[in-house]
């Protein structure tokens, strides 16, 4: 739902820069753990503006060729001696994408950016990266009313690896915002699930499939029966379950000795997530122990990130909704089945709100975003900065 919006503050040159930068970023391949080239492009945009960029050591810890980037844009000086220190806000986007199915060649057709090839575009999350770079350029001519911290993370698409390895105590801001939900601008994510990763390895016995099949113990059969016994997909009121990978066997004429599977659980809260994960582990063991299988089983269960629920009265949520109204949107609070860097930052005690960015079909061939959504996202970030500054103690903004 929208309400009348104020006149745009984004000029034609800024629109061209924003859209051109977005297309350039999308062309840079940056699947998780290979973000260096994209990071260097971000640094090359910020440093000529006089903005220092620091890289942390997360890359070495998570196996990436690059760490998280943190840049700071100083705000206007306090009004005078004894004035309260400038407020600060953190804005976050991630540099990585899911694996590419095809080279990315962005094309703009009827006002919408898509990949000319059959694969993802990379708007998740390069739309937000481009907006933050356009913001920095916009503010280069006049200091903002508060300090701004720009955080560009790596490894977000592999269970928030980069932001989980980031030291949130380095942030000077009281709270921050992530722009990483592929849904219409105006949606505010007030809840996100916890996430568990389950790896299972079945070990049976190899045998000739035609001459001595009775001497073999099929690991694939055990894994298949385990998968068939699980509850899959959306489990209303509990969360989601998905088996994403299964591999095994060596040849068509060999009873398969090994089979591995990878599954995930997303729980609406910790209690449900833990219960669903335990249920899966039980089903895996039951299948491995069936008389027709008799396989050994190794299981690894790991919580990869925690979920959250935002209080309606939280300061960053209230500021975000006020900024959306400034831009002509009526905010809509939603619960998401996906995770974002907000999960990792909140887990470290740093207040964060994830906002929808207007992109569509993330992680799919046919991913897209309109030029208008990019421009409106930039308008929203500008309004957000003003709104946060106006709420700071002693503000005269």
Task: Walk me through the structure.
This protein is an alpha+beta fold and 397 residues long. The protein contains ten helices and 17 strands. The strands form three sheets. Strands 1, 2, 3, 6, 7, 8, 14, 15 and 16 form a nine-stranded mixed beta sheet that branches. α8 packs across α10. The chain is elongated, with a radius of gyration of 24 Å.
> Would you give the CATH topology of the largest domain?
Aminopeptidase
User: How large is the count of helical segments?
Assistant: 10
| Biggest sheet overview | 9 strands, mixed
Overall average pLDDT: 95
Strand tally is: 17
What global shape is seen? elongated
Give the C-level CATH assignment of the largest domain: Alpha Beta
What is the string of SSEs from the N terminus onward?
HHEHEEEEHEHEEEHEEEHEEHEHEEH
Computed Rg:
24 Å
Kindly estimate the percentage of residues that lie in beta strands according to DSSP. 25-35%
Any idea what the CATH architecture of the largest domain is?
Answer: 3-Layer(aba) Sandwich
Distance between the termini: 28 Å
Structural class: alpha+beta
Number of domains: 2
The fourth-level CATH homologous superfamily of the largest domain is Zn peptidases
Which regions are unreliable across 5 or more consecutive residues at pLDDT < 50? none
Helicity range: 25-40%
């Amino acid at each position: 739902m929208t309400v009348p919006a104020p006149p745009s503050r984004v000029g034609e040159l800024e629109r061209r820069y924003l859209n051109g930068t977005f297309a350039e970023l999308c062309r840079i391949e940056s699947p998780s753990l290979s973000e260096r080239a994209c990071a260097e492009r971000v640094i090359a945009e910020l440093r000529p503006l006089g903005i220092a960029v620091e890289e942390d050591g997360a890359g070495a810890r998570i196996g990436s060729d690059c760490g998280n980037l943190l840049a700071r844009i100083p705000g206007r000086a306090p009004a005078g001696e004894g004035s309260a220190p400038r407020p600060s806000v953190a804005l976050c986007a991630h540099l990585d994408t899911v694996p590419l199915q095809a080279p990315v060649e962005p094309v703009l057709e009827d006002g919408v950016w898509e990949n000319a090839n059959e694969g993802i575009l990379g708007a998740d999350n390069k739309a937000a990266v481009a907006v933050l770079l356009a913001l920095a350029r916009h503010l280069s001519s006049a200091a903002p009313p508060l300090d701004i911290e720009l955080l560009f993370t790596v490894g977000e698409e592999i269970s928030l690896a980069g932001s989980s390895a980031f030291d949130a105590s380095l942030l000077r801001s009281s709270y921050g915002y992530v722009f990483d939900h592929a849904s219409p601008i105006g949606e505010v994510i007030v809840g996100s699930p916890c996430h568990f990763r389950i790896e299972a390895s079945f070990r049976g016995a190899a045998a000739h499939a035609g001459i001595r099949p009775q001497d073999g113990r099929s690991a694939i059969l055990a894994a298949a029966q385990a998968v068939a016994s699980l509850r899959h997909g959306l489990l209303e009121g509990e969360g989601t379950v998905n088996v994403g990978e299964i591999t095994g066997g060596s040849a068509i004429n060999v009873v398969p000795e090994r089979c591995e599977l990878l599954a995930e659980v997303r729980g609406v809260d910790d209690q449900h997530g833990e219960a669903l994960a335990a249920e899966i582990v039980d089903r895996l063991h039951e299948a491995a122990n069936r008389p027709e299988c008799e396989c050994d089983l190794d299981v690894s269960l790991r919580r990869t990130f925690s979920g959250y629920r935002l209080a309606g009265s939280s300061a960053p949520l209230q500021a975000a909704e006020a900024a959306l109204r400034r831009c002509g949107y009526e905010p809509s609070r939603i619960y998401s089945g996906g995770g974002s860097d907000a999960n990792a930052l909140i887990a470290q005690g740093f207040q964060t709100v994830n906002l929808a960015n207007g992109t569509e079909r993330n992680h799919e061939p046919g991913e897209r975003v309109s030029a208008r959504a990019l421009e409106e996202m930039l308008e929203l970030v500008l309004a957000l900065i003003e709104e946060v500054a106006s709420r700071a103690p002693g503000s005269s903004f």
